[in-house]
Amino acid sequence: MRSGLRFGRIPITNIQPVLEGGRFPAKGVRGADVRVSAVVFREGHDALGVTAILIAPDGSEVQRTRLKPGAKGTDSWEGVLTPAHEGDWSFAIEGWSDLYGTWAHNATVKINAGVDVEVMLAEGVLLLSDAAKAAKATAPEAATVFKKAAHTVADSSLNINDRLAAGTSAAVRAAVVHFPLRDLVTRSESFPLKVERDAAGRGAWYEFFPRSEGAIRHPETGEFTSGNFRTAARRLPAVAAMGFDVIYLPPIHPIGKVNRKGPNNSLTAGPADPGSPWAIGSAEGGHDAIHPELGSFADFDAFVAAAHDQNLEVALDLALQCAPDHPWATAHPEWFTTRVDGTIAYAENPPKKYQDIYPLNFDNDPVGLSEEILRIVRLWIEHGVRIFRVDNPHTKPVWFWEWLIGTINTERPDIVFLAEAFTRPAMMAALGRAGFQQSYSYFTWRNTKEELEEYLVHVSGESAGYFRPNFFVNTPDILTEYLQYGGPAAFKIRAILAAMGSPLWGMYAGFELFEHVARPGSEENIDNEKYEYKNRDFAGAEAQNKSLAPFVTLLNGIRRAHPALLDLQNLTLHESSDPATLVFSKHKNIAATADEPARKDTIIVVINVDPHSMREGEVTLDLDALELDGLSGDGTFRVDELITGASWNWSKKNYFRLDAHFEPAHILHVRG
Known about the structure:
Layout: E1 12-16, E2 26-29, E3 34-40, E4 48-55, E5 61-66, E6 68-69, E7 76-81, E8 87-98, H1 99-113, H2 117-135, H3 140-154, H4 160-167, H5 170-178, E9 182-187, E10 191-196, H6 198-201, E11 203-207, E12 216-217, E13 224-225, H7 229-232, H8 236-241, E14 246-249, H9 297-309, E15 313-318, E16 321-322, H10 327-331, E17 347-349, E18 352-354, E19 358-359, H11 366-382, E20 387-391, H12 398-411, E21 416-420, H13 425-434, E22 438-439, H14 449-460, E23 471-472, H15 481-485, H16 487-501, E24 504-508, H17 538-543, H18 549-561, E25 571-573, E26 575-576, E27 581-590, E28 599-608, E29 614-620, H19 623-626, E30 637-641, E31 647-650, E32 653-659, E33 665-670
Parallel strand pairs: 2-10, 11-14, 11-24, 14-15, 15-20, 20-21, 21-22, 23-24
Antiparallel strand pairs: 1-3, 3-7, 4-5, 4-8, 6-7, 8-9, 8-10, 12-13, 16-19, 17-18, 25-27, 26-29, 27-28, 28-33, 29-32, 30-31, 30-33
């Protein structure tokens, strides 16, 4: 072929997941399937084969997967690769002329039509004989199959149909899978795939305010004595018992006194009002200090150790903003925006105003400010923090995040950054490319069947290479109308959708108590914990069957028992006759280990997303997506209902009846 051409002998185009031509690596998680695809075609009608190659960080080829044709007429090919450990991997696509596929098709058509019968059989003998020689050294079993088939196809004493059947038998086709007969092999360039640890793409998060955990209210005054790290540590066993992996703490630093907000975001704070933890900094210190009422660094270290004892990782809020009395406001006014009247501009998100917060300006002294933030992140890493939940990263330059996360992950690849970025899609995508391992998402506002179907397809498909969604069901800032007016059923529905729909999900304390009353005209809880202490009787609510905690525990237990739920890119939608019932499945082929044989894990979720009604109808399943090993004679397979413990026979079409006030969903495990 001529040099300098963009197309190879077999054209390979539109390879995915590839981000901006490979400028940024696609995202992967250890042991999670990465869906790869490409458009591959050629001139004429000869058969094609397409292979995806997974390349380990040391440059060795560790997996070759034969891709399957995609939608008819698109020339697309699809499959999965599964990196086994963390590191900087890559992958490539090979397109090739499928010699056996071409011969088997042509021979079957022509011989059945009585055209070129002996010529086609002779071509088969030559192909299979050459294959036997080529396979002898590396695939002796396949070589034996090819040799035997060639001998039979060449035997002119046999019936023509028997000779053709010998060349196209199941044994030969199985041997070809193991040892494909390839020609004109064309390979794409390699594209980067960054594979990270489990916490980057899997996990259940729980958020609480340490100052509320163990806070004591004094009845005579109504004032509180703050909780602290030691009292908050007493709550950790209950969080772990619900099956959570991460305990996320809002900012733990000194809180500003200047312009401190009072209850419900009021502009007037009383002397006992604690203020918002996101208004960071006072005379007591800034981002490198701990609020005195929470304790000391030794107390924080003890809290981290207690969390680890419960198999919980601590995620710390990284909120790059300051109260007016933060030490930076005096020492480094160039790190802020100064208005024409000489005052520093406070934060605004119209119509919201945050008079107690100064946003940072990265344009006046980008080097000095960036280095100081790097110092702060390193400080908290030294104290055992391996996950940072970053507040409003979309209000800082993207280049800064690329530099900061890149610098930290070069030193410590295990450090994870979560973007709290409810913003425009382009910015959210850029933050993922810049290095954020995961992000809050629009899931919070996707409530109808149509909205959820569209969003689940998006996050598990086209955006999965750069965006890992964490499906938080609520936050201190977000109490949606769905939860405000949907009753307990709404809380259960959202928990199921989050825990089953994404390998990452989270909830803020109080969700399990069905806290649903909002400040009038807002999507925030009334008496918001951002501005005051909150006493909750978790154990009492559970004793009175007024807690969702047991159900949350069940959901997290299901997640841990079923690896299919901990992958992102394996979701398939199925049909439901009811406009408010969503159906999806997640499937994973699990490779054999030294202790366990290979197996399949398949979960089907059927959920009524209308919290006010009973829904019934018919589910129509895509059986190919479920990859069933075999149906019984009547076309059924066995499923176990993981919420109730029931077991049923299901098939392609199945009746359902789901009452939102009883059990709004079926979570079904397909028996292997």
